[in-house]
């Protein structure tokens, strides 16, 4: 009987003598050293081989259960990162990949008595479940006492369950994000999603008082943050959705291959969870890669009309734009019959003006077909410089956000990009003579687009980023930078563009760098050393204005990075403040660089 001492009372006369107690402690220590020093590494290597190499979930489940059993009797004083992460990884892995049936078979009758529960773990299911229940409170207390190691535990769970890594963080794995508890239970989410989680909890609490128990229970079961690990239930979920392979059509986009570092075939598709699916957009989150893919269908809008540029040309010219007709009259690439309009307000950048060119074109009929073909209206953005250079940009919709893509220049020698000559069979004028490059007009059907976003949680100023493909930066940044770096725009600071080294650049570099492009509103006079304007869209996909119409000066700074392991992700590298930061000089806008430019042009012509 428990008596007054409660359930922990021991029978009298069973305590060992002092000498026997020392012997038992020595034996216990030897057994633990044997289990954790020799057997644990062997079991974990077998489990890693099953999960990473062979994807044998049945064998991996057996090994995960036995790894957890090694920590079944550890007291709180002996818990460490290895034991805690092993228990948590085993619990969540088994909850996701093993079919617990002990509770179902306990209610099933078949012939003679109950049907036995599945013994595929080679350990009774009740014993494994009892282990997790017995250690749960101790694990939560340990996680609260060791927040940084708790972050590593959560990342280990995500890597193992998503089959993107192992329990131990490798050199090329990203640095652990910060994780926090949601309330007083065992739910954990990344700190970047904590405000949304607290807001959801507040909504659920308000619904409990307003809508009654049924609606409250529905919301509790269905409202969650984007990424969540529940230690109490052993669940890993993304928006409460199951994990699946990324749809194959996502891998067909060039932007996905750039973001993920290579082509994706059927055997390399990563795992994802569907965040949202609507009539026009499918949003998936790549598990353990901190990356979102948003596939949009073709934009049905007329992109030229969407800009809203209706100020007439030349009748609506502002006094500061009176130089524009002289430049456009000399431009030999102007299509016949094209109409030009201006943005609502006058240009705010001295010596640079933007216009919208719209022309009606009749494409040739498809091969083997005859008859009339409907005419189409093609829109282009024209950027004219007071120096006489005219650049043409095609309009492209990326996730319902309008960007511009470099198409033609009247002076390839002074442009930051020299496009290759394109087919001009539909251009209603003769091809412009050299030094022009590219095609002013051309028909490109609207296509589905893919927006790529990612989360670098440990760097607040880099946290939420959107990929800016280099085709949308041609003519705005030097080609050498676009070919050596991948550029991401920070959603929280849309005036900043960050360039990260490509794998080829990093492999050839002795020291590593990151580029910072600061987008600044154009002043009345050009900035000394600034990249030529207009620069880039300065907003995110949720902006209410047309991004292709934005103008900005861009100042490019090269940031030196601290030395990192060769295989470490460069997104986690820290800027080395002990080394100088270099600013890119725009020779075309800097009077002090004119002699150097003249010398380089003579060398090029020679």
What's the topology here?
Elements: H1 18-54, H2 57-70, H3 81-97, H4 102-105, H5 125-145, H6 147-161, E1 179-181, E2 187-190, H7 194-222, E3 227-230, E4 235-238, E5 243-245, H8 254-260, E6 271-277, E7 281-286, E8 291-296, H9 303-307, E9 311-312, H10 324-330, E10 339-342, E11 352-361, E12 376-385, E13 390-398, E14 401-409, E15 437-438, E16 449-455, E17 464-467, H11 479-484, E18 485-490, E19 496-501, H12 503-508, E20 513-520, E21 553-560, E22 582-583, H13 594-605
Helix pairs in contact: 1-2, 2-3, 3-5, 3-6
Any overview of this molecule?
The chain is of the alpha+beta class. 30% of the residues lie in helices and 20% in strands. It has 13 helices and 22 strands. It has an eleven-stranded antiparallel beta sheet. A seven-stranded antiparallel beta sheet has the order 9-10-11-12-13-14-15. The protein has a four-stranded antiparallel beta sheet with strand order 1-2-3-4. Strand 13 (390-398) and strand 14 form a beta hairpin. Helix 1 packs antiparallel against helix 2 (57-70) and helix 2 (57-70) packs antiparallel against helix 3 (81-97). The chain is elongated, with a radius of gyration of 32 Å. The N and C termini lie far apart (102 Å).
């Amino acid at each position: 009987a428990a008596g007054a001492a409660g359930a922990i009372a021991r029978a009298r006369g069973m305590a060992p003598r002092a000498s026997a107690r020392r012997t038992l402690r020595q034996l216990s220590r030897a057994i633990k050293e044997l289990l954790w020093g020799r057997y644990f590494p062997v079991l974990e290597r077998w489990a890693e081989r099953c999960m990473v190499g062979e994807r044998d979930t049945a064998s991996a489940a057996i090994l995960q259960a036995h790894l957890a059993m090694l920590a079944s009797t550890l007291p709180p004083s002996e818990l460490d990162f290895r034991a805690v992460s092993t228990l948590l990884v085993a619990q969540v892995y088994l909850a996701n990949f093993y079919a617990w049936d002990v509770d179902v078979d306990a209610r099933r009758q078949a012939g003679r008595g109950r049907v036995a529960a599945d013994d595929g773990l080679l350990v009774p299911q009740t014993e494994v479940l009892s282990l997790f229940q017995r250690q749960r409170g101790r694990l939560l207390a340990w996680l609260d006492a060791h927040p940084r190691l708790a972050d590593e535990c959560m990342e280990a769970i995500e890597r193992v369950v998503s089959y993107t890594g192992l329990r131990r963080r490798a050199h090329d794995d990203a640095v652990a994000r910060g994780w926090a508890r949601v309330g007083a239970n065992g739910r954990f989410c990344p700190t970047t999603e904590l405000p949304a989680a607290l807001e959801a909890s507040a909504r659920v609490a308000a619904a409990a008082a307003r809508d009654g128990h049924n609606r409250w229970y529905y919301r509790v079961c269905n409202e969650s943050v984007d990424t969540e690990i529940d230690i109490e239930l052993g669940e890993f979920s993304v928006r409460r959705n199951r994990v699946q392979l990324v749809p194959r059509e996502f891998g067909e986009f060039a932007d996905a291959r750039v973001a993920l570092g290579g082509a994706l075939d059927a055997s390399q598709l990563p795992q994802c969870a569907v965040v949202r699916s609507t009539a026009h957009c499918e949003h998936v989150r790549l598990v353990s890669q901190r990356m979102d893919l948003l596939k949009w269908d073709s934009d049905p809008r007329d992109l030229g009309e969407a800009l809203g540029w209706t100020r007439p040309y030349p009748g609506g010219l502002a006094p500061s734009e009176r130089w524009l007709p002289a430049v456009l009259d000399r431009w030999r690439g102007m299509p016949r019959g094209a109409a030009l309009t201006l943005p609502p307000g006058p240009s705010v950048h001295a010596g640079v003006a933007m216009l919208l060119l719209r022309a009606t074109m009749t494409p040739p009929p498809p091969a083997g077909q005859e008859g009339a073909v409907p005419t189409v209206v093609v829109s282009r953005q024209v950027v004219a410089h007071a120096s006489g250079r005219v650049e043409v940009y095609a309009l492209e919709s990326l996730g319902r956000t309008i960007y511009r893509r470099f198409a033609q220049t009247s002076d390839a020698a002074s442009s930051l990009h020299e496009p290759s000559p394109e087919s001009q069979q539909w251009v209603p004028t003769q091809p412009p003579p050299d030094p022009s490059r590219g095609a002013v007009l051309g028909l490109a059907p609207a296509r589905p687009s893919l927006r790529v976003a990612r989360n670098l949680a440990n760097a607040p100023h880099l946290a939420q980023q959107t990929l800016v493909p280099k085709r949308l930066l041609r003519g705005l940044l030097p080609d050498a930078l676009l070919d050596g770096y991948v550029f991401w725009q920070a959603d929280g600071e849309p005036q900043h563009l960050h360039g990260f080294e490509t794998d080829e650049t990093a492999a050839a570099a002795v020291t590593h760098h990151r580029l910072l492009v600061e987008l600044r509103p154009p002043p009345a006079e050009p900035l000394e050393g600034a990249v030529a304007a207009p620069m880039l869209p300065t907003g995110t996909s949720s902006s209410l204005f047309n991004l292709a119409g934005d103008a900005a000066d861009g100042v490019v700074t090269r940031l030196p990075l601290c030395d990192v392991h060769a295989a470490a992700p460069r997104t986690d590298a820290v800027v080395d403040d002990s080394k100088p930061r270099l600013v890119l000089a725009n020779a075309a806008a800097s009077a002090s660089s004119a002699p150097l430019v003249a010398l380089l042009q003579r060398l090029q012509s020679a």
